Amino acid sequence: MKTYIQQLKQFLADEKELLTDLALDVANAKSDYELAKAKAIYSTQLARVSGIEDTLNMALKVEGKA
């Protein structure tokens, strides 16, 4: 279980890094089209990060009960 949790933590860190990059894309958009596209991609990535966080939290709870 510890290996699984460590892998989830690394996965989360990688996805948060990508989220930061996507936030910069939103901030640097040069047109309304680019802004809308960047926001949509950012929102999708944010949902992904939230899902990984939820999975990690559940794994940590399960590990604590084992």
Structural topology:
Layout: H1 2-27, H2 32-65
Please give a structural write-up.
The protein is mainly α and 66 residues long. The chain is 91% helix and 0% strand. It has helices spanning 2-27, 32-65. Helix 1 (2-27) runs antiparallel to helix 2.
Tell me briefly what this model is.
This protein has 66 residues and is mostly helical.
Percentage of residues in DSSP E strands: under 5%
- Please work out how many helical segments DSSP would assign: 2
N- to C-terminal distance: 10 Å
Chain-averaged pLDDT: 96
Please identify the structural class as seen in this structure.
mainly alpha
The shape is elongated
Could you spell the SSE succession in H and E letters? HH
- Any idea how many domains? 1
Radius of gyration: 15 Å
- Main sheet characteristics: none
Percent helix, as a range, is over 70%
Attribute tags:
0% strand, mainly alpha, 66 residues
